[in-house]
Structures are given as C-alpha cells and as structure tokens.
C-alpha cells in the first residue's frame, strides 16, 4: 500500500537512456528530492549502478546528498554560486559573469562548470557575456559547459535546431566537455548528445521517454463507504450529485498529498482490479471520494497511479505534466522502495 517506488526501474531507465547516447557519459538529475521520489535513496542507488555525475537545483540539495555519495561522485548545482552558499564538495554551474567572478574569487582551484543561454532565456550566460569572459573562463578549466533545450519534448520544434546551432557556435573549439541534452534531448538523436547527457524525468518513468518503465505506483486506503441516493450531493461545494443510487468510498489522501485539486470530478479514476472508479466531487485536503457503485465488493485499497493510469495520464486529466505529479507527491504516504 501507499507509495511504491521501484528503484530497479529507475536504474533500468537510466541504463536505457544511457544506451541511446553511447558516446556520452550519462548523469542523473536528482533535483527536487529526485522529482519527489527521495534523493537519499535514488542517488546512492544510481551511484552503485555506476553513475558518477549528478545534478541538483540548489546547493542545499547538493549538501543533503554529498555525505551519501563517495568523493568521486560529482554533484553539480544548476543555480550556480549564489552569494553566501557553502559549496564544499559541490560543483556550481555558473550562470553569469557575476557568478563566475564570485566563484573564482571565493573558490579558486575548485571545480566549476559554465551554463550558456542558447535561447531559452532562463539560466546561463548570453553570447556577448560569454565572449567577454570566454578566454579567462576556459583558462580556469571548467569541468564542462552546458546549455538547456526549451522544446526538446517536441522533436519538430524549430527551437531545437536553433539552440543546437547556437550552442555549437558558442562552444566549438573550447576543448572542454559539453552537455546539452536532458531526457528529451537524448531522444532527439546523436547531434544533441555531446559529452554528458542529463536525464531527469525519464529516469522516473515520465514522458517524453515513452519507453520508460513505470517507477511509481500509488495505492490509497478506503476509510469508509456509504450509500448515496440519486440526487444527493458529495463533497465540498456540492459540486457532484449522484445521478443514480450510488456507493461512495472515502479514500485517505487529498491535495495535501499531491492529488491535485484539479482532479476533482476530472475523469481520473481509482482502480479496483480492472474496474475504474471515478473520483467524484472535490478533492479535499486529506480525502477524495470515489464512485464504487460498479464494484461487487469494495477492496481495502484502490490504485490511483498504476499501469492503467500512469503519471502522464493523471497529469493530462489535471491539466499538467508528469513532472508536477511526481514532485507534488506528498510526504505523508507510507513509502516502500522496491
Ligand atoms: C531539470 C533539468 C534537467 C532534466 O530534465 P528532464 O526533462 O527531467 O530530463 C536537465 N538539465 C537542466 C538544466 C534541468 O533544469
């Protein structure tokens, strides 16, 4: 019951993505607590499987996993060198000339990397900034130079080729390892792979890696069931009324556990075996209500994330993406690691 996280599936997904980019080293992105699944479990398992390069968003995320990984694991911090951060044992990915000069003043001789902006306009040095410090930055010996694709989950999007060309123009001849691809970029093909790839969501079973093994399953407990007559309402705001005499199960998780409130009467279902039981009425903080009328007997457990309803299906129903479903999974579940 509860949240089951299949570590072997994460390792298999990593190996499958790494095999698609055989010329590159395959890192693992474990930011946001390994997309909500527990970086303290996921990162050491990936290390044991041979992964040596890790990415987190924040220095504090890096500090949390640093003691769990041997010294030869490289932990790269995507937000770079923020003022006052302790980056001991971490590699900041420097995003601006200001970060570069701060880092080289504070941490001379320590490892760093560079991020360039190739069009996404989110993080990284723009071409003129890079041109201005390139000689000095290369002389300081960055571990690698990277950029990030905005539209890699849409293979036909013209931004992919444009960003690739911009990245080449800014980095050809640098003589430093390069990294451009996350999960989507790996699937775009070898032009995008360079020396280091950075899969995240694909490790955790999410799109755009359609061949991913599912990693997460989520089963919820039925607290009570009741008969509701045709015409009666269920839940906050009386947004749902029974069209027929119905049996309603109240289940023990809600939006505080990452069952997004947008899933209220959304078409999302809980499965009892192969029978789909719709979520009816509003998702509340700790509870959801489910129409189990069509079940002969109501089981103790109903399954919200399962092979019939993977994270990306749930995401579609909630108007979001699999990433947000994963990172919303709350800390109240009993977690089991397989
Ligand atoms: C989150 C992130 C990744 C991983 O992206 P996925 O789409 O989850 O594979 C890689 N690189 C950067 C810079 C990121 O922010």
TrEMBL record:
Residues 215-338 form the Alanine racemase C-terminal domain. It catalyses: L-alanine = D-alanine. One of its GO terms (molecular function) is alanine racemase activity. Belongs to the alanine racemase family. NCBIfam families: alr. CDD domains: PLPDE_III_AR (cd00430). It comes from Paracoccus rhizosphaerae. It comes from the Bacteria. The keyword Plastid does not apply. Its EC number is 5.1.1.1. Keywords: Isomerase, Pyridoxal phosphate. Pathway: Amino-acid biosynthesis; D-alanine biosynthesis; D-alanine from L-alanine: step 1/1. HAMAP family: Ala_racemase. The modification N6-(pyridoxal phosphate)lysine is found at residue 31. Substrate binds at residues 122, 285. Its cofactor is pyridoxal 5'-phosphate. The keyword Lipid biosynthesis does not apply. It is an enzyme of class 5 (isomerase). The active site is at residues 31, 236. SUPFAM superfamilies: Alanine racemase C-terminal domain-like (SSF50621), PLP-binding barrel (SSF51419). Catalyzes the interconversion of L-alanine and D-alanine. May also act on other amino acids. This is Alanine racemase.
